[in-house]
Amino acid sequence: MTRTVLTVDDSRTMRDMLRMALAGAGFNVVEAVDGEHGLEVLSAHRPDVIITDINMPKLDGFGFIEAVRVDDDYRAIPILVLTTESDPAKKQRAREAGATGWIVKPFNPEKLVDAIRRVAA
Amino acid sequence: MDELEAIKVTFFQECEELLADLEGGLLAMEEGAGDLETVNAVFRAVHSIKGGAGAFGLEPLVRFAHVFETLLDAVRGGSVPNTVELAAVLLRASDILADHVSAARGLGDVDMAASAAMAAELAQWTDPNAAPAAPAPVAAPVVAEEAAPVIIGADDDAMDEDDLGFVFVPQTITVEAQAADAELIPSNVWTVSIRPKSDLYRKANETALLLRELNRLGPIKATLDDSALPALENLDPEAAFVTWIVRLETEQDESAIREVFEFVDGDCDLEITRGEASVEAAVAALTATTEPVAAVEPAAPPPVELIAPVAEAPPVEAAPVVEAAKAAAVAPPAQKATPVEVPGPGQSVIRVDPERIDRLIDLVGELVINQAMLAQRVGEYGIAPSSNLAMGLDELEQLTREIQDSVMAIRAQPVKSVFQRMPRLVREVANMTGKHARLVMDGENTEVDKTVIERLSDPITHMLRNAIDHGLESPEERKAAGKNPEGVVRLAALHRSGRIVIEVSDDGKGINRERVFGIAVKKGLIAPDLQLTDEEIDNLIFLPGFSTAEKISDVSGRGVGMDVVKRSVQALGGRISISSRPGQGSTFTLSLPLTLAVLDGMVVDVAGETLVVPLAAIVESLRPKPEEVRPLGPVGSVLAVRDSFVPLIDVGLTLGYREESPHPTDGVVLLVEGEDGSRAALVADAIHGQRQVVIKSLEQNYQQVEGVAAATILGDGRVALILDVDATINLRRREGGAPRPPEPSLIAAE
């Protein structure tokens, strides 16, 4: 069964990069442009894995992750945080919010697929 | 195009938008209107540019963006105050960032010295003391050396945001296995003990997946210690009770094993030891300080696949901390998550190769011609207008026109993309010339065909440069004249009678007509005794070889005069004019067709030739009465139209179709208005009616012909030339009216 990945990033470039890498690896990709949008898309597509950026307008990555984790329907979905910040404090905050794992930008497709494999059943 | 290349194109498009957002935000900050959200947006813009640039390995851009972002993050965090002075610095930094983007795109170069200096300046803001205690050894050289970003850039694929002096250290895990021990232990066997905490599940991690990952390193034998598992009736489904002891055989080292647990670091008790340990020993080691655990039956090693269901502990209940987030999550859907300019994913936007649209436009053009041809044929057969056939043709015409409009609308874009580059230009030119200038923009959302947009940039750039360099006075001069030392330059776009009009105006000193006239005489461009109106003197600056700057300044002295601007505008079927009031400023008005593909025109006969006169230029058509035609000078004549007189121009004579003009009363007269507002009466032999024609450039196939704007193919398949009204008026002024050109405005004032 094709797995669906939701990517949440305000940068079109990044969404395109993710789409290219994920589609190339056989994933079905759905996209959202910020956290709020992410929550909408989430309910429409029920993804198997979520990849989200941190810095986004409206609802940032932290808020988005927290919102997913409080929802009984979605809280078991693995969330990978995608960010350039290797800063331990930010990563820690993302983890506290409920992030399953992280990918440091810039990523290559292997790294990305590797991270998904590690968190997705 | 390769997919990555396509994304790169997207990236640069996005950069344009982000740079515009950045500049907009910074301008707001400069005006003291930058709230936290503005700062956040500004930060995100730079952050996204950096992120994308990193993905494409655009090193210099990443480096500069990083320093920039570091400072913005500090502003965002409040450690650097958000002041107007800072905004000014950030604006200059944004200009350099834009240069980096252009350079990465292969357009232009970056002044590396200026970039390095700016990076150092930005770094200074983040860390004014240059040498705080801890990161001193790293930070000090950064500040000391001009090439700050280069140092940081040494490892920048994962850079720290908060500390400029941070040097990226790969996510290495300390390998604790002692080399000596390694020698002693004969096998490549490891014992990995894992006791998940409930947090591991709360974050949607899975023990089963960890075991699967371990299995990728080599064969495993996993043992479950469920001794801590309470009886079912006492079981808290959200808590974690089990421990796994895994025997792993692998050629990999300990860091590879630890890497498996990277995401669950801290969310489980983990013990990795070399060699085979008994389950009891392993559990004991893991438990160390906690309560002792009873020995477990070393159960038969369950295959990893079977483990999965066991490990499926559900995530814990939501913590109250996240209540706020939940509130955000259920925010009313009415509040659209997708702003207009950021279309949502999937269906709402499709990307199309522009070539396909161009092809479509071409085809629709052919369709228009074909439809016109069909209508003409039907007319020739004398079919009654009320017949079904004729009515069907009318509908076809309607539909064709709608299709054409719709297709053109696909390519229509707001002029914003051009306008948004201008604030920077104004800043730079003002800096270079020592003037204070403020740019006011209007009508950025005015839409025009993409082909026109692409060619607007140069003329606007030039007119703005000119306005600041030649139009505005120095701050001292302005003060002396009782004006605000800061000059205002206005850039506006609007639609006017089927054309787009761009106005560039300044509130400077206006054109010094005496000097302009003097220079034109000195340069031999006009005769010293020539009588010219103010307006004509103003328009002298468009003459080739004219430059009013006494000394060639940095800005305007690039060998490109207003004549070049005028020519490039004319090549687009546009016109440029100037009006000026001494002491109050000048206004350049540029008018262009909305599209370069079709034109509404009046088809006329002149000396046996068929011509198309652009409808936009025609005020009215009339049949002059003999008493309305008055001679002027030896060859010229004028036409009385209501209260004024306009010069009569025989198109056939002007274009060289005939030597002798027929009397105007024998033909029809088209009263036309030039872009500068001057009127003329064009004499033609007959009018065939209005028609939409597809413009076929003459220049591409032949060359520019004065008086002729382009060509088209008519319904009957014949080629017709499209008249350039302004050029026709000018031709006549120069040739027909010699030695002294008849002056329409003088005559009108009679």
* Biggest chain-to-chain interface with counts: A-B, 57 and 61 residues
CATH superfamily of the largest domain in chain B: Histidine kinase-like ATPase, C-terminal domain
Judging from the principal axes of the Cα atoms, what is the shape of chain A?
globular
CATH architecture field of the largest domain in chain B: 2-Layer Sandwich
Give the termini distance of chain B in whole angstroms. 65 Å
Helix coverage percent of residues of chain B? 40-55%
CATH topology of the largest domain in chain B: Heat Shock Protein 90
Biggest β-sheet: strands ordered side by side in the sheet of chain A: 2-1-3-4-5
Low-confidence stretches of chain A: none
What is the total tally of β strands of chain A?
5
Strand order of the largest sheet of chain B: 14-18-19-17-16-15
**Global shape of chain B:** elongated
Note the main sheet of chain A: 5 strands, parallel
Beta-strand content bin of chain B: 15-25%
Keywords, separated by commas or semicolons:
heterodimer, A: 121 residues, alpha/beta, Rossmann fold, five-stranded parallel beta sheet, 5 strands, globular, B: 750 residues, alpha+beta, Four Helix Bundle (Hemerythrin (Met), subunit A), Alpha-Beta Plaits, 5 domains, six-stranded mixed beta sheet, five-stranded mixed beta sheet, 41% helix, elongated
